[in-house]
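Thread: Newbie trying to understand structure tokens

Hi all, I'm a second-year student working on a class project, and my supervisor (Dr. K.) asked me to get a predicted structure for one chain before our next meeting. I've only ever worked with sequences, so writing a 3D structure as a token string is new to me. If someone could post the tokens and maybe explain what I'm looking at, I'd be very grateful. Here's the chain:
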Amino acid sequence: QVQLVESGGGTVQPGGSLRLSCAASGNIFSANVMGWYRQPPRKGRELVAVMTSGGSTNYAASVKGRFTISRDNAKNTVYLQMNSLKPEDTAVYYCHVDFRPGYGMYYWGKGTLVTVSS
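---
Reply by user tm_fold:
Sure, no problem. This is what the structure looks like when written as tokens:
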């Protein structure tokens, strides 16, 4: 069983930056994919950024060039660096890891709130 704990959320002005962290209780290096999702107010959960165990990354078009996903294997932590934040980035951000897509071997964090407002 893997536990994921997000941190780093908060309130920032448009154009500001935040770095989210996702600390895992287990070794996430073996996970097939790991990433970040978000759920804006009154909207569904959407993919923000994903990274495979091999290091390949993919980003939602709305955040490409502004957000960067990374990991620290020694710390069992996944990060999301968010720059040039916009009001539409306001959402609860969730960490997600999947050890084997299609087989139910995945875990979610409880989320951390990011609010971008002037």
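A couple of things are worth pointing out once you decode it. The mean pLDDT is 94. The radius of gyration is 13 Å. Feel free to ask follow-ups in this thread.
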